[in-house]
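Q: Could you write out the predicted structure for this multi-component system? I'm mainly interested in how the pieces pack against one another.
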Amino acid sequence: MSAASAKARPRAAAIDLSWPILLFVAAALCVLIVLPVSWLVYYSFTDHAGAFTFGNFLRLATDATFIDPLVTTVIIATSVGAICCLVAAPMGWLVARSDMPLKRTVRVLVMASFVTPPFLGAIAWELLAAPNSGLLNQLYSSLTGAAPGVHLFDIYSLTGLIFVIACYTFPYVFVLVANALDRIPGDLEDASSILGGNAWTTARRVTIPLVLPALLAGALVAFLQAMTLFGSPAILAIPAGFHTMTTKIWSLFQYPPKPELAAAASLPLLVLTVLLLRAEAMILGRRGYSVVGGRNSDPRLVRLGVLRWPALILCFMLLLNPVFLPYGALFNAAFSRVPSQLLSLQNFTLHNVDFVLFELSATKLALKNTFLLGVLAATIGTAFALVIAYMTARKAIPGHRALGFLATAPVAIPGIVLGVGLFLSYTRPPFVLYGTLWILLIAFITISLPSAYQQLQAALRGVHPELEDASRILGATRLQTLGRITAPLLRTGVIATWCFIFVSVIRELSAAIMLFTSETKVISVLIFDLNESGDLAAISVLGLMMLAITFTIVIAANRIPGFGGDVRLRNA
Amino acid sequence: MRNEKFSRRNLLKGSAALVFGAFASPVRAAPPEASPVTPALIEAARKEGKVAWYTSVDLPVAEKIAKTFEAKYPGITTRVERSGAERIFQRIGQEYGSRIYAVDVVNSSDAAHFIVWKRDGWLAPYVPEDIARHYSPEHRDADGMFAAWRAWLSVIGYNTTLVKPEEAPKSFADLLDPKWNGKIVKGHPSYSGTILTATYQMSRDLGWSYFEKLAKQNVLQVQSSAEPPKKLALGERAIMADGNEYNLFLLKESGQPVEIVYATEGSPLIVGPNGIFANAPNPNAARLFQSWMFTVEAQQQMIEVGGLRSLHALATEKLGRKPLKEIKLMKDDAAAVERESEEIKAHYTQIFHV
């Protein structure tokens, strides 16, 4: 017996573990995705006593308090989609295809709006454009001498909400458009001009058709983001007296909780998301655009001439809204005695910083939880995504297609819906994870998996398989090869993915708000809490800390996640 | 005088049963005895090293009180879990539903919650000496499960730079004047226990039609009862229809342009009890905290830095603040709020759409 096992040992070490790993990964993905969605569906078809019913859907379809939020959500999502295209397309073109100065800076600033948590942006815009106390409205009335009560902006309104959501959604469209434009070979445009086409003809006949799919896809992504966003509507819509679908779902979880209705209200969001993603895949997957991707020559830059500087000014004017103004407002509120007063020597105070750091007993716990979850989610998520990406990119095992599908499936689950699903799954035996950091970890990994997977798969395509083959021929297993050859070659991609997940964990709110308990609070939830009691100064300090951590991570990575590959940051 | 001596003697003997029994309804077992703070309790609390206080009192006030306790008993960290009373109630319900026992001491601005928690057997009996001696029976539970830690009012307020005193509303009815359209801020009863309690009292005394008319005034709907005063101070709205009196005291005393109006119809009285949970993870620290919270020293601090009102017999009101007995009050009725809370929230949502 002992001889047999001793003999078997060296063989065991060399056994290729890919099959067990495939099974493990597939099982894990099922637990991450299938379990919460099943509970969601189950709950939506049961009544309070647990019997089968269509009653929940019937109530959704007939009750105005559900129909109104649905209509509002569609209005918001459509408007945001349109606005994002109008802003991002010209800006993307200027950055990718013109000789506008400071293009790099513009890209960095768009990236800054990309990583800014949307709920933080919404609170900052409260400081800027609350009808009476907003800094911009005060400026307006002091300049024009407008009567009290007359204001320029009202952020607590449908248009205000659409504006703020668009501020933090347009980068998605920008990334898609700019990347597509970057990849259009200059040859095609050169050919057009050689054949006598002027600049406008070239744009109309060559450039625009080639970039249109990316723009359409961008519009869909923006629609999706706006539809599934929770933080901004909760902060701006409720004070104005209306709900969106996400805030409605969340309110159904308030006391007395109605999980059946919440589950039923989640399903339309889920179905819509799946349909839109199918549409996006169809648009991007259509034949005839294969040229986008193969890069033959550098894109030709259009000379703007005298318009160079006005173009840049336009970009900066647009970037005032997501970056300069909100950051300024947060900074002002953090150090000013009254958040609605401009900072001066008279009202400068460190009290707010002191309060957040030394008095607020939730700060330390929330910081610790956020860091822990960020590091764990980023590490496990990256490792997980790397294994899956490797298996699908190298077609390592049969079933790799299914694996790839499962890994991207969470993209179709809005954060708040995932939160509801996970809550329903893990507050009951056998897996009682509610109240632990595990449930949040599961949520964060699930949410960031699709983009991590896509990023790493793209990176893997850049590593030639012959290096791995050499390692395999020399006797290494797949895993050893992955660890010793592939992973080091992918270092930049892996680090970028890690940072990317870390940053998305920091800004996640919609799933966390459903899953936290008093001891598992994260910073985003703490900020949301503070907003409900109107502690704007404390929020500003925490928000600036959050931004500082985010930018440190991004800069430390020395590479801007989101601008290298086809990535998608999820909603907060 | 007779009562005072009577209770003192009994307390010294370690048996307060007679005193409690004299006020309490007859159908009950002997209420728990008053417990002094002993060195053994302090030592046991220090060993636990921490206490979690779930409360709905405005965050800066809560943290100040927690810090004072920490200074008084070094080695015990206080974790303040602050949210709206209705959120706190939901949070504890959700946590207990999943067998997460994280809360030690709770303070809610919705006294009705204590009726539910007591009925469910979630509270632990504990009577600090101060409660036995200096709190009248109507302000403490006969079975020693909780006592009124703080009291305050939900009031009307206005921003003095935006509204002249002579033009300010005097009553709830005045708030329905079209001139206040778009100028009013108010809290939400699904978040705030203060607003829920006030909404109950006002709908009882003024009728729901009052709220139906108020909803047409295009109000800014915030959540916490601590936020309308802050929105007033910012100048974001000129009038607050409901919200904490204590925040307005604090803001006014720090020089902010806000003023309180006690409505001629009466101001809703809010009582915020404190109690210990039976499954408290830090039972000794919880008792020490509870004992300290009801000392005249802590109550006086609550008045000074919190703007709240104390029901401690020896506590004195702060000069410059209108004494409670001079204010016309609406009557609080926790039992009724407990019965009607769901109905009130549903009705409110129907009227105000959120």
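A: Regarding packing and overall arrangement: Chain B touches chain A through 58 residues (CB under 8 Å).
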